[in-house]
Design brief:
The complex is a heterotrimer of chains A (146), B (360) and C (150). Chain A is an alpha/beta fold and 146 residues long. Chain A contains three helices and seven strands; from the N terminus they run αββαββββαβ. In chain A, the strands form two sheets. In chain A, strands 1-2-5-4-3 form a five-stranded mixed beta sheet, covered by helices on one side. The termini of chain A are far apart. Chain B has 360 residues and is α+β, with helices and mostly antiparallel strands. Chain B contains 15 helices and eight strands. In chain B, the strands form three sheets. A three-stranded antiparallel beta sheet of chain B has the order 1-2-3. Helices cover 35% and strands 17% of the residues of chain C. Chain C is built from five helices and seven strands, in the order αβαβββαβαββα. In chain C, helix 1 runs antiparallel to helix 5. Classes of the chains: A alpha/beta (146), B alpha+beta (360), C alpha/beta (150). Chains A and C meet through loops of A and loops of C.
Chain lengths: 146, 360, 150
């Protein structure tokens, strides 16, 4: 499936808010609204055969520190990344482990490193941080940064 | 029978890395288990943001001692793609040579660990003894046995002159002869086959659901290899086979790695034959222009994923690393529910865990 | 005089049969695989009486590799307590000595001497097997002269 087909298919599932952002080295990036995300993932896995999730990257950009950007990187012969954004003071995302069980560890890491709350899963225990960690999500931008 | 839970770890004779498992058994049957990782979490992604790009090469090499070169190769290609430079072709081939040597050394290490878990200490000794030849080749090239510091941003740190290349070719021939014997031994050895045949089979559907990569995926028939699918140079110019197997059990995982070792030996010869002359490094600026990039490569255990974002300074703004073992770990609770107690070491060894990679 | 002879024999037997327990407290594995290399035919430390043990209850020397992370503190302390006296601790590698390249991380405590009394430091990143053997020989000399932690 090439980019243009993918863009038109995504628009049918997620509405006209899907925007193709960029093509970096072999990677196509689409922007998806959070509330349509579970529908997009169902379509990807069940209808279009795109099932391999490589990673979930989270970051806060300097130009928009009030939101946390979440990128889901898939691989399907070419790299496809879906970018979502959640506000920092209400960081909630729908969980996709019912559709892709392999996303479990990545969601747990996102939850502990950035404080994301995943809806639709029973519990999100920490994965990597020590049991007695009390310093908050470590990868969030702090006020002392730049 | 009643259910007992055996806690294993974080110090255990099974693996050399700390990981904590709680395995539920009833008699000789294993009912299930859960695991706790994070003992080796050193916060590499946080540390990378505090260091410059050049300092990060030294840090990223030490994420894992077994697959250190492939981590720095992926990182350097990511930085170079943001800088917009293409490294000299000779440097690309030297990077690939070290990657393939690393794959051979990692698989030989794995055969030894599997044999040790199965109880066949002789194969452990043979396999690791021959692995010393690979470490000698890597030391002859780079000066380091395990962590080589081969890569720098812009190329590689060393070159091979004619004499050294001849020495490396000789050692590769010797390696092929001796490793060939070990691999044949593993294939025909009845005890390894008896302990691994039919143990913990994983279906291709489970591989897809859990997003598993590497030899574990290929042993269940899922044909994925980043050297062919998303090749970093010079893999687009090299001719090699991607080994798959259909059974998905521990024996299939062993066979895939045996054949991959043979392919990597052939690849090393091919790389030395195809390597052109020229410089091995190119000058790059310290400040990396703003941008973001994604690079994937094939470590001995599977797909390594790097995301790098720069804001125009000499410190990375975000570095995200996803290592192949993190995907494979989620398979362990699934596999632990269909085996016997004596198969636990075989299952854990079959995944080829590298917890240092997974925890970062 | 008989006592002195017995004491020296005791020390001689001890130093020539050190059973080691390698434990990775959070390191990258580079030093671990070099320690395991010692058991293989090229370096073969069994000729010095050294065997790698699986359980702390049988071990004389704890070979620590890697920086101590916050999560492994409890484990390493328990292992040390389970080892019977006389026991010795060796910090193998730069990470175990000082925290190495990870020393500034917020999940890393530092070298192993932040928790345990260390008898031997072997620097290197990663350590060469020859350096580990040299270090273990030094530990043997120290034991022969009566240095120990009870």
């Amino acid at each position: 499936m090439n980019e243009e087909t993918m863009l038109s298919k995504l628009k049918t599932v997620a509405g006209s808010e899907v925007v193709r952002l960029a093509t970096v080295r072999n990677e196509v990036v689409f922007s998806i609204p959070v509330e349509k995300w579970v529908d997009v993932v169902s379509a990807l896995v069940e209808d279009w055969g795109i099932y391999h999730l490589s990673a979930i990257t989270l970051q806060q950009r300097e130009e928009s520190p009030e939101e946390i950007e979440v990128m889901y990187h898939f691989w399907h012969g070419l790299g496809v990344t879906f970018r979502l954004a959640v506000p920092v003071d209400r960081p909630e995302l729908p969980s996709i482990i019912a559709i892709i069980p392999g996303a479990d560890f990545y969601e747990r890491e996102a939850a502990e490193m950035f404080g994301i709350v995943f809806k639709g899963r029973e519990e999100t225990p920490p994965l990597l941080l020590p049991d007695d960690w009390d310093q908050g999500p470590p990868l969030r931008r702090k006020e002392t940064d730049d | 029978m009643t259910k007992t839970t055996i806690p294993i770890g974080p110090q255990h004779p099974l693996l050399k890395e700390p990981i904590s498992l709680n395995i539920d058994i009833s008699g000789e049957d294993v009912l299930g288990g859960s695991l706790r990782i994070g003992y080796v979490h050193r916060g590499i992604e946080r540390l990378a943001q505090e260091r410059t790009y050049v300092q990060n090469v030294h840090l990223i090499e030490r994420i894992c001692g077994i697959c250190s070169h492939v981590h720095t190769t992926t990182y350097c290609y990511a930085v170079e793609s943001l800088l917009g430079v293409e490294i000299p072709v000779r440097a690309q081939y030297i990077r690939a040579l070290m990657c393939e040597l690393e794959r051979i050394h990692s698989h030989l290490l794995w055969f030894g660990i599997l044999a040790k878990h199965v109880g066949l200490e002789m194969v452990f000794m043979h396999s690791w003894h021959n692995r010393e030849i690979v470490l000698d080749i890597m030391e002859a090239l780079s000066g380091g046995r395990v962590i080589h510091a081969a890569n720098q941003i812009g190329g590689v740190r060393f070159d091979l002159d004619a004499e050294r290349e001849a020495m490396v070719r000789n050692m590769l021939h010797k390696l092929e002869e001796q490793v060939g014997g070990v691999l044949d031994g593993i294939v025909h050895e009845t005890s390894i086959r008896a302990r691994t045949r039919g143990v913990a089979p994983i279906t291709a559907e489970q591989i897809r659901q859990y997003c598993v990569v590497g030899p574990v995926a290929r042993a269940s028939g899922v044909d994925v290899d980043m050297r062919r699918d998303d090749p970093l140079p010079p893999y687009d110019r090299l001719d090699f086979n991607v080994i798959t197997h259909q059974d998905g059990d521990a024996w299939a995982r062993t066979m895939v790695r045996v054949e991959e070792t043979r392919e990597s030996l052939k690849l090393c010869e091919m790389i030395l034959d195809q390597m052109p002359g020229g410089p091995v490094t190119t000058r790059v600026s310290r400040k990396v222009p703003a941008g973001e990039t994604v690079v994937r490569s094939e470590a001995p255990r599977g797909e390594v994923f790097y995301y790098l974002r720069s804001v125009g300074s000499d410190h990375p703004a975000r570095l995200k690393i996803r290592t192949p073992t993190l995907a494979a770990l989620s398979l362990i609770p699934v596999q632990l529910s269909e085996i016997q107690v004596a198969d636990i070491p075989v299952v854990l060894a079959g995944i080829d865990l590298c917890i240092a990679c997974a925890d970062r | 005089m008989l006592e002195n002879l017995l004491y020296r024999s005791y020390r001689w037997a001890q130093k020539n049969s050190l059973w080691v327990l390698p434990f990775n407290t959070g390191g990258c594995n580079g030093c671990d695989i070099e320690i395991l290399d010692l058991l293989t035919p090229r370096y073969d430390v069994e000729r010095m009486g050294i065997l790698a043990e699986a359980t702390p209850r049988h071990a004389d020397v704890l070979l620590c590799t890697g920086p101590v992370t916050l999560q492994t503190r409890e484990a390493i302390w328990q292992i040390y307590m389970q080892m019977p006296s006389p026991k010795w601790v060796a910090a193998v590698g730069s990470c175990s000595t000082t925290g190495g390249v990870f020393a500034s991380s917020s999940t890393v405590l530092g070298g192993v001497d932040k928790l345990l009394p260390v008898d031997l430091y072997i620097p290197g990143c990663p350590v060469r097997p020859e350096a580990i053997i040299a270090g273990l020989v030094k530990l043997q000399e120290k034991i022969a002269q009566g240095g120990e932690n009870e």
